[in-house]
Amino acid sequence: xxxxxxxxxxxxxxxxxxxxxxxxxxxxxxxxxxxxxxxxxxxxxxxxxxxxxxxxxxxxxxxxxxxxxxxxxxxxxxxxxxxxxxxxxxxxxxxxxxxxxxxxxxxxxxxxxxxxxxxxxxxxxxxxxxxxxxxxxxxxxxxxxxxxxxxxxxxxxxxxxxxxxxxxxxxxxxxxxxxxxxxxxxxxxxxxxxxxxxxxxxxxxxxxxxxxxxxxxxxxxxxxxxxxxxxxxxxxxxxxxxxxxxxxxxxxxxxxxxxxxxxxxxxxxxxxxxxxxxxxxxxxxxxxxxxxxxxxxxxxxxxxxxxxxxxxxxxxxxxxxxxxxxxxxxxxxxxxxxxxxxxxxxxxxxxxxxxxxxxxxxxxxxxxxxxxxxxxxxxxxxxxxxxxxxxxxxxxxxxxxxxxxxxxxxxxxxxxxxxxxxxxxxxxxxxxxxxxxxxxxxxxxxxxxxxxxxxxxxxxxxxxxxxxxxxxxxxxxxxxxxxxxxxxxxxxxxxx
Length: 496
Prior knowledge:
By secondary structure, the chain is α+β, with helices and mostly antiparallel strands. It has three domains: 4-77, no CATH class; 136-229, no CATH class; 261-478, no CATH class. The protein has ten helices and 19 strands. The chain has helices at 14-27, 35-47, 114-124, 136-149, 158-185, 188-215, 218-229, 235-249, 284-289, 409-417, and strands at residues 4-8, 50-56, 72-77, 80-83, 86-90, 125-127, 251-254, 258-261, 263-266, 280-282, 310-313, 324-325, 334-346, 359-361, 391-405, 425-428, 431-436, 443-444, 455-469. The strands form six sheets. Strands 9, 10, 13, 15 and 19 form a five-stranded antiparallel beta sheet that branches. It has a five-stranded antiparallel beta sheet with strand order 12-11-16-17-18, with no helix packed on it. Strands 1-2-3 form a three-stranded antiparallel beta sheet, covered by helices on one side. A hairpin with a 2-residue loop joins strand 16 and strand 17. The chain is flat, with a radius of gyration of 33 Å.
């Protein structure tokens, strides 16, 4: 049967969206949604800029599943997160960046994405076969196990075939017993007779097992199977093979984007600025009662009129202009915001392979090309950046609902920002307060309507990362296991 795959926006076709929602409810065995529920669900999908996908049968399957109701559903949405002094990043991209191994841990500009780098590492990983062999005693045990199971031509021995036949007889007897019991449970008369009928069936099961154990060489055959199954292989070679399989198994094709690795960010509501579950609030009370690192670009609260890390940059947040310090007299500065650390789970990048010694990168790559395992790693200038992976993002440090206030803040703010262009960005320390991205739909501004509230910046901001430094890898120079290809071609004569 040829199925129809459709991708659409929930505001494009109300009837199609309602059928999609009803399919979701039906799939989870929920009650048929009311008109009110459909309207509320539809508004939420539209508000989240959700992309809906459905799989449709070519013909109707009856009144319970009309032709315009999908048999499979999937929903996704693409949002943006603000990063101070940078353009808004699509959510599916914020974990695919490399970080500079510097005190600021800023995103490595112009670098290959993490997924592409991991693909290059896994594709180029070459396992090194071991130079040691098993002892004669172990090799003899494997040969004896193989001789019990197969002949010289690779066919199953009569003993092994007998084992398989008697195993099938036991499985059939046990299946009959279970089916009869399941039938008796639904029939009171049969259930009343089960102590007798069930006893006879149980005896058949026991006899089948006894025949299997006595005539099928059960213990010897299973011991031989366990011996052969216990044969090992080099862990690096095994992990390279598994990594290649996982690379393909954990890709999802996003329309308009292409195949991307499955990356989960938890809690799942992290990108919903209206959902406060999992968010913690940091207020002026916390600042007053704790000691914080104090520097002009990072201090949280102070008194006495110290200038505290306000900055501006021309050209908007999508430009990389140098930040300029803004001279604010910030007496009695107060800041509050909500914060969350969201965990990032990457289904593709598994750094276990990097800890092993017996592999190298195919080609001309020195050891520690992927990572030195240390802080302060510099971006390679020898063309090896595509396989350079010094760290991997494991968490996102997010804030929202930023509020900043100090004595006479409104007058100073209006005075300092009145001459700024629409695309000028303004921030405080790691936080973005005001900025533009070249269009009205990508503006990021602050509210100054209420004297008592101070500067209020809504929306989610990504202010930092939690990352794991990759181990030193590979630990072998490729030149130790590769040789240059010598061409047999004769030089062509020069033109006369």
